[in-house]
Amino acid sequence: MKNINILVLDDEQRILDEIYEFLTNRNYNVFCALRPSEAFSLLEKQEIDILILDIKLPEMDGIRVLEKVKAAYPNEIEVIMISGHGDMNTVIEAMRMGAADYFPKPFRLIDINNAIMRTQRFVELNKKLKTANSDLKLLSKVLSEHIGCQLLGDSAVMDNLVNMVNKVAATDNTSVLILGESGTGKELVAHGIHYLSNRKSHTFYSVNCSAVPETLFESEFFGHVKGAFTGADSNKDGWFEIADKGTLFLDEISDMPLSQQAKLLRVLEDRKVSKVGSRESRKVDVRVIAASNKNLEELAAQNKFRFDLFHRLSIFEIEIAPLRERKEDIPILINNFISQFNKQMGRKVRKINPRVLKTLMDYSFPGNIRELKNMVERAMILNDGDTLLPEHFKLGHNMQAEEGFSGLEAASAAPRSLDLEENTKRLILKALAQSGNNKSKAAHLLNITWQALDRRLKKYEME
Asked: Nearest 10 degrees: CA dihedral of 256, 260, 265, 271?
């Protein structure tokens, strides 16, 4: 197997030679050591994926070597143990400390090969995770330096997103279409593409297409010359000229009027702009990144968006998953927002109540990351201590706190069971508790008559 580096540590030269010859014939990259000190010296210089480790060694035994390797390279190196002194306690100890496999001597070399093949998937997974984490750290660092924000998360969908951003950033002219619900971070992703590309030293210009009046479209996008129309007192560069050699981000592209989409398409095809009132054209070198929270292909099928513009914009398409599809990232995002608002507000909040975190993990977040950030900011303002509590959170206007729980918890709380009688009893008890055992008030809270409540109290022997 190619690209797998294996280190064999055994104090018997004969065994080292046999393993070396067998594995190199199968395209492994094999390194050998007779003593632990030699192995540790080699580990400092060479990236190793799998360590084949004897237990009986000079200097220190294999269990101690395993312990040191797992402490220094917890996710980088998988260990296969071998020993001529089979001892079940030693086997258990090795497996407990993270060994991937164990073979007593004498062993068949083919069994060692099979163990390596079984371990391969863990090696490959660790390499992928290492690459993904490295890419995410680089992207977050770049975004933090330029705009003070980060892309955060360790979910599979986030790994895929970062991979897509890195791939398209390596191209200079490819148009990108970013799709996703409101609040998912479409502009942040566009910034990431720009700052990882060769255009990073030039302008990133953001335009909200829904905020551009149709009458000003040409003037804003392409500029105008002095005297082109009433009020044109001087020459003005359009957004394409401002973003020349950089990136033009067109947010909410679906809101652009059909009448103006043909003009945008022409510029994207010709790479030239003409100012309003001028017959001259100027070449521009701009990468266009568009974003929408609507399905442009469906809009095009309904004749609400031009098919040719859709295809021109969507050469490379990135879809950002909503927060409800990557809930494992919620704790990471919350911790980041707490740290961010601590700095802004001069606070010292350290953690979030576990009940609140569980409720947030169960919530659907229609407003996505933006909604979560707003929730944490509001909670930080209300909080006077070091922990964010249920009463600091609120979801929606119609959610009332009950029994010491906030509206947040009430929103996500599910019945303990679907048993109708059990839930009816529970609601009656709540109503009586909130009304101070006043049956008339309890009946009013339950939206039933006093007599109906009385019948239920007798039926369930709750009087």
From this structure: -110
* DSSP letter, residue 211: G
Quote the CA–CA distance of 42 and 54 in Å, as a whole number: 16
Crossing angle (nearest 10°) for helices 420-434 and 450-459: 120
Pairing of strands 387-388, 236-237: unpaired
Residue 366's CB is within 10 A of a number of other CB atoms, namely 14
> How far is it, in rounded angstroms, from Cα 48 to Cα 30?
9
The secondary structure of the chain in percent helix, strand, coil, rounded to multiples of 5, reads: 50, 15, 35
Out of 1.10.730.10, 1.10.8.60, 3.10.180.10, 3.40.190.10, the CATH code matching 325-412 is 1.10.8.60
Cα–Cα dist 68/41, whole Å: 13
Give the residue among 360, 339, 458 at the shortest CA–CA distance from 407.
360
What are the per-10-residue average pLDDT scores of the chain (463 residues)? 81 92 91 94 90 92 91 84 76 82 86 83 59 61 72 80 88 93 91 91 92 85 86 87 95 90 91 88 93 93 94 94 90 89 89 86 88 91 87 56 42 54 78 78 80 80 71
- Could you write out the DSSP letters of every residue in 138-150? HHHHHHHHHHS--
Q: 349, 301 in Cβ contact below 8 A? A: no
Q: How far apart are CA 32 and CA 271, in angstroms?
A: 59
Residue type at position 240: F
Strands, E assignment, 44-196: 50-54, 78-83, 101-104, 176-179
* Pair 53, 65: CB distance under 8 Å: yes
CATH architecture of 149-319: 3-Layer(aba) Sandwich (3.40)
